[in-house]
């Protein structure tokens, strides 16, 4: 035998029997190339066409509605707070003005005494004049105003007439018996005055006798 025949490849036998002759068990079919067949991967479900857009629009509408509701609540709270601040400020100012007016009203008697002293010449000089000027300046700075002087038109909402001379339709103040005072828009005390006829009424009264005399002279001439 030659050397080439001795180096031939070994013969391989494949047992294709389905039953093992030694154990009697059924054999598993061999996979190609000796590898077990791997299970095929499960296919992923395809997304349903047309379902994403409606859900997005619904979510956007919900968020927009909630945002509009929260914005309206915030605007309402802001308006209520602004009204509350204005109301508190108005009430605070009204309470302050009422307290000032109450204190000033208690001092009106002192101002009357100073006016009488001034009318008698007691405030021409001396320390009392300085006290009177300082008191009047301090009250005026707080908002006190006096009214009622001779020659002013008579106003029944500010003046209280205790005497009336004449019968004209244009009454004016002829004499002031007690000054009136107001604090801002509040009248603390009405002025006591005497009312007389105005300039127009006095001129009318002066012209009336002349006209009557002219009528009498005309009648005499006709006779």
Q: Can you walk me through this structure?
A:
With 223 residues, this protein is α+β, with helices and mostly antiparallel strands. The protein has a domain of 79 residues: Roll (Nucleotide Exchange Factor Grpe, Chain A, domain 2), CATH 2.30.22.10. It contains five helices and six strands; from the N terminus they run ααααββββββα. The strands form two sheets. It has a three-stranded antiparallel beta sheet. Strands 2-6-3 form a three-stranded mixed beta sheet. Strand 4 and strand 5 form a beta hairpin. The chain starts with a helix and ends with a helix.
A few lines on this structure:
By secondary structure, the chain is of the alpha+beta class. Helix content is 50%, strand content 15%. The termini are far apart.
What structural category arises from helix and sheet content? alpha+beta
- Mean of all residue-level pLDDT scores: 77
Radius of gyration: 58 Å
Oligomer category: single chain
Helix content: 40-55%
Tell me the number of strands: 6
Fourth-tier CATH superfamily name of the domain at 145-223: Head domain of nucleotide exchange factor GrpE
How does CATH name the architecture of the domain at 145-223?
Roll
Q: Percent of residues in beta strands? A: 5-15%
CATH class of the domain at 145-223: Mainly Beta
The end-to-end span amounts to: 201 Å
Query: How would you spell out the order of helices and strands?
Result: HHHHEEEEEEH
**Spans where pLDDT lies below 50 across 5 or more residues:** 31-38, 209-214
Strand arrangement within the widest β-sheet reads: 1-4-5
């Amino acid at each position: 035998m030659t050397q080439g025949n001795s180096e031939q490849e070994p013969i391989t036998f494949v047992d294709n029997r389905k039953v093992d002759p030694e154990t009697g068990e059924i054999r598993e079919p061999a996979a190609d190339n000796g590898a077990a067949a791997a299970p095929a991967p499960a296919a992923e479900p395809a997304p349903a066409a047309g379902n994403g857009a409606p859900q997005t629009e619904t979510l956007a509408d919900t968020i927009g509605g909630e945002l509009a509701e929260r914005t309206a609540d915030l605007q309402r709270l802001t308006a209520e707070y602004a009204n509350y601040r204005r109301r508190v400020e108005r009430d605070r100012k009204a309470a302050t003005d009422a307290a000032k007016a109450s204190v000033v009203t208690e001092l009106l008697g002192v101002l009357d005494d100073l006016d009488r002293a001034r009318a008698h010449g007691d405030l021409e000089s001396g320390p009392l004049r300085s006290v009177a000027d300082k008191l009047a300046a301090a009250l005026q700075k707080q908002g006190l105003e006096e009214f009622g002087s001779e020659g002013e038109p008579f106003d029944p909402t500010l003046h209280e007439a205790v005497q009336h001379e004449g019968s004209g339709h244009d009454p004016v103040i002829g004499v002031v018996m007690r000054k009136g005072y107001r604090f801002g828009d509040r009248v603390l005390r009405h002025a006591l005055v005497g009312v007389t006829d105005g300039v127009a009424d006095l001129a009318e009264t002066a012209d009336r006798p002349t006209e009557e005399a002219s009528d009498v002279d005309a009648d005499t001439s006709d006779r």
